[in-house]
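Hey team,

Sharing the Low density lipoprotein-receptor class A domain-containing protein run so nobody has to redo it. Sequence (263 residues) first:
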Amino acid sequence: MHSIPFGAYLTLFVLLFVHLNPKQLVHVNAVSYEWKSDYELDKVVQVITDYFVSPSSNPPPLILWKAVNGHRGNDCPESKPWPCRTPNICLSFALICDGEPDCPDEYDEDQEMCTAKLRPAEEHLQGFINKYRKWLIPDILGEGKPEELATKLVESKTIVDYAKAAHLSKEQIRRLVDLLMGVKSGKQIMLHMMGMPLGAWSELYVLFYRIYLSGFLNNVEQLQTDNDEQEAQQQNSYWTKRNFNSYRDVRHMYGPYQRLMHY
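Structure output:
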């Protein structure tokens, strides 16, 4: 009776783990690894099966190495792990969002991606918004699901962009500006007066101070200008319509060629 080598037990254990965790990812040096197709896995399983049936035949080491080690999610070297969307072009992280496009399609300087690089992690922001949603939604951040608002906060370059994306009212914009200025100045009492729950300050400061530092309020004065212009347009539209209606009513009463008499 043939004894089964220890290596076969180890290999079988690895294959069983892969089979039970087909989507398992292993991260090494910030490079993603994933398992190959089910077809290749089936080949390896067949090799192991043949080995148990006929111990004299040795499984090909290359296939076993692939099964155990997986393959890179991209072909970039560790020194340049960031792949452009154009094939076979890789960049170091230092070149991402440095103001100079290096990918042929300039993807490494994508505005939303570079803005998100300066902001807190989206999943952390989403968790915070969800935790304090009764305070933040809709009075401060506007209407929407926590994941949607977190994405807008991470990707919007300025508060003007966010206000448009989240369809904020003037009052919501004012509260958001007050919140960010309170975070910047460390005015916890003011924020508590705005309804900030007890225990929220530390996490609020970590997340929203980073949003402030990224230049989120750089063009906040534009909001007032836009609001003033919008109100002026609405007033002009109102009075133009009112004057036209008055003229129409007078013409109907006195005729098109009658001159109004003032007493």
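Residues 116-213 form one domain.

Ping me if you want the raw files.
A.
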